[in-house]
Amino acid sequence: MSDSSNNSFTTISNYQIGLLNGSELKLLWETVEQFGIEHIRFTPGSQITVSKLAEDQLTEFVNTLKPLLKPLPTNGITSIYNCNEHGECRKGCIATGKIVKKLCSLDLPQPMPARIKAAVAGCPRCCTMPRLRDIGMIPASARESTWHVYFGGHGGRIPRIADLIGEHLSLDESLALVRRALIVYQSEAKVKTRTSSYLRTTTLNSFLEKIGKITSLDSGQGI
Hints:
- It is globular, with a radius of gyration of 19 Å.
- It is built from six helices and ten strands.
- By secondary structure, it is α+β, with helices and mostly antiparallel strands.
């Protein structure tokens, strides 16, 4: 898919790239040279875009880089922002990599109406900006392993701070709440309507009531 802001760049869709060691960096460099790539950049969502890549070379380029790439979730979550996986941040109190994996594996009954961006913060400093994402998870404090869950945030031209939909929840409770919120959103939002736009058409109390009516985590029934 071409980057509309610069037609010479191509986004490697459906994949993210994580932390790279020396040998992985070498593979990336050798692949860039092999395909005559002039520039490569890493997006905030840990994807890569490259310049001057011919369309008929895209599949071969992706296959060459496969050892470095992680598939994006297939449940409709477009990208997940999280803290460094190996604890380089001295402020971080919680390893977020395992939580990202759980979000990636959430089982959802329908396709998403629009893009879904999630963020998990490793500490209350919130460097991953969870309050500006469709889904945000923030630890309640540095000393306890409970979570605050936010829904419906959006940055960009018309920003919206996400609504707090759950407080001091366990990890399992938080993930279950995220799933139920997404089920309501899937069922009600029109195509191409982001969570922020959807929540502007309703009230938070109404949204929470609909979430509360979903009693089974195995189906989307009961809304």
